[in-house]
Amino acid sequence: MGTACGRQIVSDVRNGLAGLRASAAGFWSARTEQERRFLTAGSIVVGLALVYAILVDPALTGRERLRKELPALRQQTAEMQALAAQAAQLGAQAPAQVQPLSRDRLNATLAARGLDPQNLAVTGDYVKVDFKGVQFAGLVTWLDAARREERLAVQEAKIGTPGGKEDSAGLVDATLTLRQEAGSR
Asked: TM spans, by residue (predicted)?
């Protein structure tokens, strides 16, 4: 059944095309020689305009755009290669030694950021610190500095509003467990 239906469709398309050809031939034969020349010339002009608009113009404008962008792309490539060489050079260097954690040094960095911990415990490579009612922005700034300077990574963090109040305006209670990493920053 599928092939019979397919044959019928092909037959209908052929009949439709034959009808169009017949009407086009009738239209063409009804024209005078001068009209035929005008129609031929017009068709050629329209065809050339389409070829130019679809194929030639996009290629030319794309080529011009690339010609303008190429110096900037070359500059970016040179910068990336320089940065890659610098990164490889830095990667080959031995990592800086990290000073062992000390309670006094951590208290000094906390005080410099205006943070007053309720409890600070240093055990080997681990630090446990509790805060009550501190500014969240100050806490995050201190954590970022501790990550860069002391290579402290957050192992566990519990952060909430002071006393469960909703109107604490940027203040938080936090319990943090941090670990000093010996690897690179």
From this structure: 38-60
Q: 157 and 128 in contact (C-beta within 8 Å)? A: no
Residues 127 and 152 sit within 8 Å (Cβ to Cβ): yes
Distance CA(128)–CA(121), nearest Å, equals 5
For 172, the enclosing helix (H) or strand (E) is strand 171-180
pLDDT tens digits in sequence order for the chain, 185 residues long: 567 787 889 989 999 999 999 999 999 899 999 999 999 999 999 999 999 999 999 999 999 999 999 999 999 999 999 999 999 988 887 766 777 888 888 888 899 888 889 999 999 889 999 999 899 999 999 999 888 888 899 999 999 888 767 767 888 999 999 998 875 44
The secondary structure of the chain in percent helix, strand, coil, rounded to multiples of 5, reads 60, 20, 20
Residue 150's contacts (CB-CB under 8 Å, 6 or more residues apart) are 98, 99, 101, 105, 106, 109, 180
Q: What is the DSSP letter of 166?
A: S
